[in-house]
Design brief:
Structural class: alpha+beta
Number of strands: 4
Radius of gyration: 20 Å
Shape: elongated
Largest sheet: 4 strands, antiparallel
Order of helices and strands: EEEEHHHHHHHHH
Number of helices: 9
Strand content: 5-15%
Helix content: 55-70%
Strand order of the largest sheet: 1-2-3-4
């Protein structure tokens, strides 16, 4: 217990078997991620936490189960930062922790798409909308994937579902127009 607290500005530090990783800088860029000894993401702080916050957190860590939603959010952040392998690990952990989260499956799909694994991306987008048929983001991004693959009719169907869920949504309408052109449906393209 006489081990020092991690330096607030350190990139990585360990304390009592817990890894603290800071992205540096001020919030929101300066988030601190806390992993347990098994490497499972347990908490994210928007800014470097105080020693008091960390002390309270360490007391709860043993009894508090991991939050899959937190792993999902960390995956999104890693993907935005271009850290694809770390994003994949976070989304896999989120999906394993709670297979009913459509965002975890959709995050896996985005990551696979970024890695060029298009079959896996399609599988995971489909999984996200199977989990929640009203998950508009999953339908929209499935449409993007299909449109890039030249599957205009399939993309139109996916965008149609996103519109049904969201209502009039400018980016979806524009994507539908592009899909209509790929599907060689000029009449629909002009309507949109």
């Amino acid at each position: 217990d006489d081990e020092p607290w991690p330096a607030r500005d350190a990139l990585t530090a360990a304390h009592r078997g817990v890894l603290f990783e800071s992205t540096g800088g001020a919030a929101p860029a300066g988030a601190t991620f806390v992993y347990d000894a098994d490497g499972v993401l347990r908490r994210a702080f928007a800014s470097p936490p105080s020693a008091e916050d960390l002390a309270g957190f360490l007391e709860l860590l043993a009894d508090e189960p991991p939050f899959p939603e937190l792993s999902m959010l960390a995956g999104r952040r890693r993907l935005l930062d271009g850290q694809v392998q770390k994003a994949l690990a976070h989304f896999e952990a989120a999906h394993a922790g709670d297979p009913s989260l459509p965002g975890a499956a959709e995050g896996l799909a985005r990551t696979h798409r970024r890695m060029g694994n298009l079959a896996e991306a399609e599988r995971d987008y489909l999984r996200s909308i199977e989990i929640d048929p009203d998950y508009a983001v999953g339908h929209f991004n499935l449409g993007v994937l299909w449109l890039r693959a030249g599957r205009g009719q399939d993309a139109l169907a996916a965008y149609g579902e996103a519109l049904r869920i969201r209502g009039e949504h400018g980016p979806t309408l524009m994507a539908m127009g592009e899909a209509a052109l790929v599907a060689q449906d000029g009449e629909l393209a002009l309507e949109l």
